[in-house]
Amino acid sequence: MTPHGLRRELGTTDAVVIGLSAMIGAGIFVALAPAARAAGSGLMIALAVAAVVAYCNATSSARLAALYPASGGTYVYGRERLGNFWGYLAGWGFVVGKTASCAAMALTVGVYVWPGHAHAVAAVTVAALTALNYVGIQRSAWLARSIVAVVITILVIVVVTSTISPKSLEWSASAGPEVSVTGVLQAAGLLFFAFAGYARIATLGEEVRDPSRTIPRAIPLALAITLILYAATAAALLWILGPSAMGSSVAPVTDAARATGLRWLVPTVGVAAAAAAVGSLLALILGVSRTTFAMARDHHLPHRLASIHPRFGSPYRAELVVGAVVTGLAATVDVGDAIGFSSFAVLVYYAIANVSAWTLTTTEGRPARIVPAVGLLGCVTLALALPLPSTIAGIGVLAAGAITYRVRMSWRTRSSTDTTDESTSGS
Q: H helices within 242-264, ranges in order?
C-alpha cells in the first residue's frame, strides 16, 4: 500500500483486462447503432478518426500516468501541470459524465436480461458490483477477466458467421444515409465514448504494481486489441445488415446474429451483451469511485469520501456513494442521451490531459509534440460535432462545476483572511 493510499495489486494483464472490459461493453453493444445512424456507410472512416484521437489521448495519458501514478487520472495530471482549477474541472467532468455512463450501462444490462423489469435489474446489478468493489480490486479484476474472455469469444463467432452467411448479400443491399463530414465527425464523437474505457487504467494508477512500466504498456495494448475487435465487428455488421438497418437497430449485434439464420446465436449474443455491459459497468464504477476518492482527498469533494477500508484497502465510502447515485440515475436515464453527454464530458477531460502532456519535458517522458496537439484538436472538434443537446448539457454541467469551484475558493480565501486578521488582532 502506498503511504495514505491504496494497495498496489494489479499487474499488466489485470490492467489491460479492466481497460478491455470498459471499452468492449460500451462500444460494440451501445455506440455502433447511433454512430451508423450519423455516418451511414462512412462508419469505418468515423471509427478510424475516433481511433486516432483515442491513440493520441492514450499516449498522453500513459506518459502522464507513469509520472504521476496516483488515483484520479487527468484530475491529478491537470492539477500538477496546469493548476488546481484545471485538475478540478477534469475530475468534475469525469465523475459527472461517467456517472451517467454507469447508469446507461446498468440499464443496458436490464434491457438484455429482463426487458420488462430493466430498471429493477439495473439497480440490483449496481448494488452487486458495488459490493464486489467494496471487498477489493483483485476480485473485480478476476470478474473482468472472465467477462472479457466470454465476450470476445462470442463476438468472434458473430464476425465469422456474419461474413460467411449466405444471407449477407440480401441484408446488405439496404442503402444508408448520405455520407457527410458532419455526420462522420458526429459518429466519431459518439464512438469515442466506446474507446474512453482505457481511462480506467490510468485512474487506477495507485493500485497498479510498478506503474511507470505497467501503465504505458497496458493502455496502448488494451486500445489496440479493442480497435481490432471494433473494426472487425463494425465491418461484419455493415456487411450483413447494411448501414440503414444497422443505424435503425436497437441491438445491431443481435440483429446480425439473427440474420445468419443460426437460432442458437441470438440468445448467446444476448448473454454476451449483458456480460459486456456488466464488465463495462464494473470498470466504470472503479474509475469513478477512484476519481471521487482522489478529489475528496484534496477536499474538492466531502473529505469523508477519502476513507480507505482497513481490511480490504478499498475507497469504500466513495464506492458506496457512487453506487447509490448510479442506482438512482438508472431509474430515469436514457441510454442515447447518456452517450452524447458522457462523450462531451470525457472529451473535455482528455483535452486537459493533452494540454498537460504538452507541458512535459523530454526528461519527463514527453511524447512527440504532434501527439498532444492532434489529441487536443481532435477532442475539441469531436466535442463540438456531437448532437446539440449533448453539447449544451455538457457545457452547462461543466459551467456549474466551475462556478461551484470559484465560489468555494472565494469562501475559503475569505475564511483564511478572517482567521489571519483575528490572529493578528489577538497578538
A: 243-248, 252-259
Cell of residue 92, nine digits = 468534475
Give per-residue pLDDT as tens, 285-331.
Answer: 877 888 899 899 888 889 899 998 888 777 889 989 988 888 888 77
Residue 234, all three cell numbers? 463494425
Partners of 208 in the β-ladder: 10
User: What amino acid occupies position 71?
Assistant: S
Among 90-94, 334-338, 390-394, name the one with the lowest average pLDDT: 334-338
323: left (phi over 0), alpha (psi -120 to 50) or beta: alpha
To the nearest 10°, the Cα dihedral for 185, 270, 228, 232? -80
Q: What is the DSSP letter of 320?
A: H
Instruction: Using CB atoms within 10 Å of the CB of residue 405, give its burial: 0 to 12 exposed, 13 to 18 middle, 19+ buried.
Output: middle
Give me 5's grid cell: 493510499
Give the largest Cα separation in the chain, rounded: 90
Cα separation of 29 and 139, whole Å?
25
Q: How far is CA 405 from the centre of its chain?
A: 24
Taking a C-beta distance cutoff of 8 angstroms, is the pair 365, 63 a contact? yes
Amino acid letter at 182? Answer: T
Q: How many CB atoms lie within 10 A of CB 267?
A: 11
pLDDT exceeds 90 at position 358: yes
